[in-house]
Specification:
mainly alpha, 13 helices, two-stranded antiparallel ribbon, 2 strands, 305 residues
């Protein structure tokens, strides 16, 4: 029940705050540890492998120490701190706000839509049409449901369930698992590009870590859309997406909306359908939000039981 209470704390903070300012966000602090790796190295794979092992482990140890110390002061403080750790390693409200903003701006201010997409998806938006901007917003919302919420939330729950088997505090181990997954994902987002060999180990580790969350996210999206058949259609498009994981949630969104989702020159999902309208893109973002709420509810039920 204490772990379920921590999930509730995280969900309440997410609804009330969204995310703290960047200068106060521990994930941004972690990013400042990763940033110095982004340069030329004589042995980039060796450096990257060591960093991919050490830096997420450091983040996990900080989370363990924080929750364990709080629990020794008072059990309730331990629950609150575990909930705060989970909150800081997940993101939903900010994702939804950013995606909605891009979609809305495609009607009134294309320059603002393109600028907003840079923060949301990190792709060159200079030549994208309004429909392609909406496509990118829906794609990013669906993909980041897995990266930004389900991965860390799932790790939190799984670690809590397994904690009795290893004789470790469920709250401390759950917080450590969420922090570790977020650290791996942060390293991948900062370094996981083909041009950055030092980031290859982190990228490969992130691919492995995200395998299950991506598929769980796809299932949650299919339930949120009320269209389980979208899973079958998404599966048929997976070979069109370079990532081994992101095609699942994006494909479900494309199938359930019956829209084409396209990153020009990289992939096309549901190629025979039209690109999203404002109305369908808004619907897609709303369904991502509903899938996020379902993930919190599922996590709460599993940890409660």
């Amino acid at each position: 029940m204490t772990v379920a209470a921590a999930v509730v704390v995280a969900a309440v903070l997410e609804a009330a705050i969204g995310e703290p300012p960047t200068r106060l966000h521990p994930v941004a602090w972690f990013g400042s540890l990763v940033a110095p790796l982004d340069r030329e190295w004589s042995r980039p794979l060796a450096v990257g492998s060591l960093a991919a092992l050490a830096l997420p482990l450091f983040a996990a140890l900080v989370a363990v120490a924080t929750v364990a110390t709080g629990s020794t002061v008072h059990p309730t403080l331990g629950v609150l701190l575990a909930g705060v750790v989970l909150f800081l390693t997940t993101s939903l409200r900010r994702l939804l706000d950013a995606a909605r903003s891009v979609v809305d701006d495609t009607e009134t201010d294309l320059a603002a839509a393109r600028e907003g997409l840079l923060a949301l998806a990190g792709r060159d938006a200079g030549d994208l049409s309004p429909a392609l901007l909406r496509s990118a917003a829906v794609e990013s919302a669906a993909e980041n449901l897995a990266d930004g919420l389900v991965a860390s939330l799932g790790a939190f729950v799984l670690a809590a369930v397994l904690a009795p088997l290893v004789g470790i505090s469920a709250l401390a181990l759950a917080a450590a698992a969420a922090a570790w997954v977020k650290a791996v994902n942060t390293m991948d987002s900062m370094l996981g590009y083909r041009s950055k060999r030092v980031g290859t180990p982190a990228a490969r580790l992130d691919d492995a870590v995200m395998w299950l969350p991506a598929r769980v996210s796809a299932l949650l999206l299919a339930v949120a859309f009320g269209d389980l058949r979208s899973l079958t259609r998404a599966h048929s498009w997976l070979d069109r997406v370079p990532s081994p994981n992101s095609g699942w949630p994006m494909g479900v969104a494309a199938a359930a909306l019956d829209n084409r989702l396209e990153k020009p020159g990289v992939y096309v999902l549901n190629a025979d359908a039209p690109l999203p309208t404002v109305a369908s893109a808004r619907r897609g973002v709303r369904r991502v939000g509903l899938a996020g709420l379902l993930s919190y509810a599922l996590a709460g039920v599993v940890t409660w039981l």
